[in-house]
Amino acid sequence: MDINRRRLNQVFALTALSAILPLKNLAAADEPAADATLNLLVQPEPPTIVTLAHTAGPTTRVSGKITEGLLAYGLDFKPIPQLATAWQASSDGLQYTFKLREGVKWHDGREFTSADVAFSILALKEVHPRGRATFANVTEVATPDPHTAIVKLAKPAPYLLGALQASESPIVPKHVYEGSTDLPGNPNGHAPIGTGPFIFREWVAGSHIILERNPDYWDKGRPLLERIVIKFIPDASARLAALETGEVDIAPDTPVSLSQIDRIKSLPTLAVDDRGNDYSPNVYRIEFNLSNEYFKHDKVRQAVAHAIDRQKIADIAFYGYAIPAPSPISPYLKAFYNPDVPVYEFDLAKAEQLLDEAGYRRGESGIRFTVPHDVMPYGDTYTRIGDYLRDTLAKIGIKVELRGQDVPTWLKRVYTDRDFAFVTGGMGNTFDPTIGVQRLYWSKNFKKGVPFSNGSGYNNPEVDQLFEQAAVENDHVKRVELFNKMQVIIARDLPDITLVAFRQLTIFNRKVQDHTVVADGLSGSLSSTYLRKNS
């Protein structure tokens, strides 16, 4: 997706558009059921339900229904007004003016104003894992009146307007957060006040979250649902049963084993959809702790790379639904993917040689050394990747002990305590590498306690410079050249090893209509979603 300055001035010219999606004329068979409750599965349970300081997938699935952004984006990536009704980029790319929707109220009855926008953008710059890059060049957010916000930048940010949807850059209530010394830990993250179509009612840990229809929502006639019950079901077999029995109506992020997908497709009540995932194509990777006594050595990481067969991972862990991905950028992000990155081919003999050269020879037991491997606790796909890594690394004398834990413990271990050797994880690239990829490799984003950031501790000044140049380069061709160089260097340095790319799947009951209408899929507001009356 080319978002250079010229295109910004063409596509994002000052404009006033209608509300998010017009209500369509419905046939009688498709009439919305009255007072309907949508049962939405989110797995695992999120650590917070506001995306101000979190990019975890489960958090994004909840946040946007309560807390809105300035814009939304259709499946065609065209912008749709949300809290902003009109916007304009200056010719030099250093100023963005937003006209804000009038008459919008926070769920506690307070008026929404430009002061909330200014506070949120500056907070995102401070605490959001990707916001540090997205808003790095923001110097000020001026508020000349309650319904105008002017974002001023020291340097151009050609990706900025693509990052303003609710799941990425939420607008939060200034009056709730102001004065807080711990923005990520603010109580609003667990009982949020927003402007969105649904109002937070309760969160029962380990069970569910209840959201109810906002009767004062600015988009009159919306939402069409009366209630959303967000359920947490840790066991994959129980999730499958819940979908088949109708206990759950819809579930994103491939909630069941991929081995079950073909059978699900044959059922009359259920269907599968892969839309709503291209805004942030996922890559699956192993990330090394570059301070670890073993993985701080280049040759050891190279040996691990030579011991990995990406196609086997695609086949074993993803049942053929994934594709090999040797670069930090997903092949599905075609505008920026470099197909010519160097690849460490699968070669166990070469891996053995490198480990010998690194000084880690096999002992009498045949083991060179033992390391723990922390599997991201987001489902059995990660477990299968861990099993594969344990088995293949055993062949070259590295004993891997798989270590499981819940999500909060995993996040703390990796990003706060730094108590790991290497981990399995999945990361969203987002629509632009400055936002989705830079955070993982930029040395300035190596900060303890910040989840889904530079977990390896990677520090390469040349890579930093390439990212920083690309972040302010308005010429798309030049940006691609910079990102191509970056991909080659990272593939050589191996702070991590990107394994495969995969489009997540949504499983839904056929009675659920208009569930995927925006680029970030079920992370959207669901204001237009309904259940068929005659189902």
Brief summary of the model shown:
The chain is α+β, with helices and mostly antiparallel strands. The chain is 27% helix and 20% strand.
Describe the protein in words.
The chain has 535 residues and is an alpha+beta fold. The protein has 16 helices and 21 strands. Strands 14-18-13-17-15-16 form a six-stranded mixed β-sheet, sandwiched between helices. The chain has a four-stranded mixed β-sheet with strand order 1-10-9-8, covered by helices on one side. The chain has a four-stranded antiparallel β-sheet with strand order 4-5-7-6. Helix 8 runs antiparallel to helix 10, helix 9 packs across helix 11 (380-394) and helix 15 (461-472) packs antiparallel against helix 16 (476-493). The longest helix is centred in the last third of the chain and has 18 residues, at 476-493. It is globular, with a radius of gyration of 23 Å. The two termini are 39 Å apart.
Topology:
Layout: H1 5-11, E1 37-41, H2 57-66, E2 71-73, E3 79-81, E4 84-89, E5 95-100, H3 114-127, H4 131-134, E6 138-145, E7 148-153, H5 174-177, E8 198-204, E9 208-213, E10 227-231, H6 236-245, E11 250-251, H7 261-265, E12 270-273, E13 282-288, H8 298-306, H9 310-318, E14 323-324, H10 348-357, E15 369-375, H11 380-394, E16 398-403, H12 407-417, E17 422-428, H13 433-436, H14 438-441, H15 461-472, H16 476-493, E18 496-502, E19 506-509, E20 512-513, E21 530-531
Parallel strand pairs: 1-10, 15-16, 15-17
Antiparallel strand pairs: 2-3, 4-5, 5-7, 6-7, 8-9, 9-10, 11-19, 12-19, 13-17, 13-18, 14-18, 20-21
Helix pairs in contact: 8-10, 9-11, 15-16
